[in-house]
Amino acid sequence: MAAPTEDIVETHDDKHVDLDEALVSVEVAHHQETEEDLVDESYFRLPKWAKFYRGTYFQMIMLGGLSFSGPAMSDAIDGLGGGGLATPYTANASNAASYAMSCAMTLFGGPLINKLGIRWSCIIAALWFPITGASYYVNSKYGTQWFVIFAGALGGIFGGFLYVAESTAMLSYPRPTERGKFVGIWVSMRNSGQVLGGAISLGVNVKTAGTGAVSITTYLIFIVLECFGMPCAFLLSPSSKVRRPDGVPVPLAAPVSWKKEVVLLLKHMKHKRTLLMFFPSFYSFFYGGVYTTYLSLHFSIRARALSSFITPVGSILLCLAFGWIIDNKYMSQRKRAWLGFAFWAVPQAAVLIWTAILYRQFQSHNLTGLDYTLNTGDWFRCFVPYYIIQTTGYACQLYLYWLLGCFSADVKSSARTGGLFRCFETAGQAISHGINSRTSDKRIPLYVNIAVYILMVPTLSLLIKLVPDTPVNHDDIVDESKEESKAAAQVQGAMAHDPSGL
Length: 502
Known about the structure:
Number of domains: 1
Order of helices and strands: HHHHHHHHHHHHHHHHHHHHHHHHH
Mean pLDDT: 76
């Protein structure tokens, strides 16, 4: 259904009508109809394969395929600990450059996605997937460190297109009652890529009990898998042709100019919900730099390869269960928001404390090269916190997508929300990997992680308090929109007598 943009709802909440947003309100108001009016009857007359092809399920599968061949392969390489290299510092520098560029890209990702569309944004992103694996191969074979960092930086720009495009789709394509399930499918497909990558890494490196770099053959296999992203991108449908299972198109707002897109983005940035989501988004993947460095410095090659296989398996199972929990229709939306928060935040708090204790022990006992067969006890107690933070980390991201989706929005508004969400998230990742590429005392990044967690808890709690008990009703939004459109019409009438008001 064509819900009004989030920016319009924001205008209503703030009790004032801005000129640019008022004009958009007028445009959207003309598109408001009931769900029955919006059902595309021709969709049901299509062949089964065509309905599936244009349906939201197929779009989620293709987006999952993109994540499988792109971010999942990058994560699988990163999951080897320091990119599988002998030391984690070059990989951390590359990741810091990548996420810094992604942060800059996703900041204005909303307007870009709204103009290019989700499909073309994904095609652009898929062009760069194989270069990531190639850079690690070249570094492992020839010792060319600059290429890893350069590929990371440029890949951050290309990857930014995918980050915002997939965020937009996750927030706007599913129906409110299916959002957890759809995001769970996407997260599971992304992690299935890591499972495959981890299985390959484990198979190639299973006999290497020492420390150092993984086999160079590992990267060649990753390069091949990264090439599968392009077909998935081309198979995506334009948003205007996507249909939900009930035949209703995904919500689209009227097109606006580049100037209006930027103005709406700037206003979106100042909204209370946007400010409150900064620390949760910033925190969500901050652990990445801290714990991949932890894995690289303290575990053997085959232990790191085993981790890259079993960790995403746990993430898939956890996220599928978590998606079912937060889609539970027998609890209010706000209760599910609180339950979902506790689901991942409590274990992560325990892990951060656990890791701080382990680092104190590392000072007195130089624990390196931990292996699941040679020193099983030490390996287990040191690996469990890594396993928990990695698996609950994906549950955290799934939760944040679901939470932001509770504030009903159309595709264009979701692009702004998704762009800023990924901007804040990648800023956290850039800083996390950056500090782990420089400091010699690895307790410092952990303490920074703990500080960010402490700041995240109250801000996310305030954001949860804004979640409505039930999904926003379409008719209620339309009624609000009508009031705003009247005010907007008055503004337009004034402009007709005074064009200089533009």
